[in-house]
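Project standup — Tuesday

K.O.: blocked on the structure for the chain from last sprint. Re-posting the sequence here as requested.
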Amino acid sequence: MASRSGIIEKLPFLIILAVAAIGAFFLRDQISFVALAENRETLLAFRDANYLLAVIAFMAGYTVIVGFSLPGATIATLTGGFLFGTFPGVFFNVIGATLGAIAIFLAARTGFGAKFSNRIEGKGGAVARLQAGLRENEWSVLFLMRLVPAVPFFLANLIPAFVGTRVSRFAISTFLGIMPGALVYTSVGAGLGQVFARGETPDLSILFAPHVLGPILGLAALSALPILIKFLRKKVN
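H.V.: unblocked you, prediction finished:
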């Protein structure tokens, strides 16, 4: 009975992994900039005729893409900007991404996270000390994982689940932490009309331009400041 209960707990996360694997194979060419360009008139017409429904459908679709780790999150972000403008498009993008991230987080924590976290605490050692360090600087670490482009979004959803992060902290740090990057890509999406007219593709390397990446890394440094202060205090004491 206990083993059956354990399988049921793991089932949501296993389903996510299975759908992600299938999606990576079958959808990699379906959710693309070319597909957006080819269907732009249909999407705009639907938005104009059913704005509220378009918003709900878009956020639901974005949530599914992120929740099942399907390819196309970047295209979805551009689509949000294209359909709804930088504002309120960025909020629709961030809400959809956050809801999807929470879904992965809850599935991982329910199936594996709590038991994994307890095992680490029970065994002690270096990994347990790392877990304790993450918890001690939880807000800073959560924001750093979202702000620093080097941390894959999928891993940033799983790591907090495995160290016992509270849902509220995870949700808040995700919503606020992904906002800067989402704002950049949404603004690129808002200008896609001109890109389509020229027959070009958007320049997504803008995120790594100094005037864009600099402020984001500045926010990351600000998030890391509490960790540095605690470290220096321990050295002094």
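K.O.: great, moving the ticket to review. The radius of gyration is 20 Å. Residues 24 and 71 are 6 Å apart (CA to CA).
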